[in-house]
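Q: Given only this backbone (311 positions), what sequence would you predict?
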């Protein structure tokens, strides 16, 4: 997959089969569009082109600092690479770019810059200034500018239409299983290991404190999770706690992972955490001994579950 960090950097290709959108999470619905893109490209001896944007348009247009994203930029790139896209354009989104009318977007971007021969878009896709452009507009523009357009219906899972918004809501409630079903891959967090207060060491459950660098990355609901942890290119089983550590009257939100059967100095290193399952809510215990007792039970349950899965 070739990556371009602006539309201007892209050079036209033969029979460009194009789609555009934010593609946060690269979920089932997105994969349905991409698979159709690839099928058309194979039929007409073309190449697939995906145009997306950074930052997310809502962050730019509405100063929406509350918007949290399923995928970081690098995670999205890797998912699109795995999906088989030929050309990925990540264009800097700005207020100036948002002022392009729907006609200007089609004529100047899709046709003149990208050389679109076939356009595939998702259900209810809008584009151009104030989201004025729609599938109906594209059907009118197509014959005029020499391309064909196709709209892909929403992907359903158990009669629920998949969307990035629904995946975010699932994660914000700790429902990582639903998120996985919609994404077709495990939700993950990555971050740098930073110094903590060593409470875990004191009670026999040493943890790595994770600082997530991407300020717009979604952090799932507070609670304890069964996870897999990628450390130095090797994967381990782990227990992750997201929350404020109420047993010690904490107030600042932390992300701490206990990596089972691992005891090495990894301060300053980057970990990747894959979410397997929800274990329980974060809760306040009457003492550190009571907390330790619960963590022993949590770890035993996690390892039993892992053993059953491996059989």
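A: Predicted residues:
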């Amino acid at each position: 997959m070739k990556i371009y960090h602006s539309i201007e950097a892209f050079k036209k290709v033969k029979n460009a089969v194009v789609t555009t959108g934010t593609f946060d999470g690269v979920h089932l619905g997105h994969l349905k569009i991409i698979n159709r893109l690839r099928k058309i490209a194979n039929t007409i001896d073309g190449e697939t082109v995906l145009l997306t944007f950074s930052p997310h348009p809502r962050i730019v247009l509405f100063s929406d600092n509350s918007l949290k994203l399923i995928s970081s930029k690098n995670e999205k790139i890797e998912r699109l690479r795995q999906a088989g896209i030929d050309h990925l354009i990540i264009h800097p989104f700005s207020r100036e770019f948002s002022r392009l009318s729907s006609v200007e977007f089609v004529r100047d971007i899709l046709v003149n810059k990208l050389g679109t021969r076939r356009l595939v878009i998702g259900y209810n896709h809008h584009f151009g200034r104030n989201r004025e452009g729609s599938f109906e507009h594209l059907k009118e523009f197509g014959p005029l500018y020499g391309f064909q357009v196709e709209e892909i219906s929403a992907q359903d899972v158990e009669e629920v239409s998949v969307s990035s918004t629904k995946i975010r809501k699932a994660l914000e409630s700790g429902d990582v299983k639903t998120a996985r079903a919609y994404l077709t891959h495990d939700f993950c967090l990555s971050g740098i290991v930073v110094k903590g207060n060593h409470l875990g060491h004191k009670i026999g459950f040493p943890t790595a404190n994770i600082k997530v660098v991407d300020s717009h990355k979604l952090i799932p609901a507070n609670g304890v999770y069964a996870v897999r942890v990628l450390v130095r290119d090797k994967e381990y089983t782990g227990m992750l706690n997201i929350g404020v550590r109420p047993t010690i009257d904490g107030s600042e939100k932390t992300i701490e992972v206990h990596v089972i059967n691992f005891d090495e100095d990894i301060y300053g290193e980057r970990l990747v955490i894959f979410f397997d399952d929800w274990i329980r809510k974060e809760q306040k215990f009457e003492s550190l001994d009571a907390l330790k007792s619960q963590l022993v039970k949590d770890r035993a349950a996690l390892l039993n579950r892992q053993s059953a899965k491996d059989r």
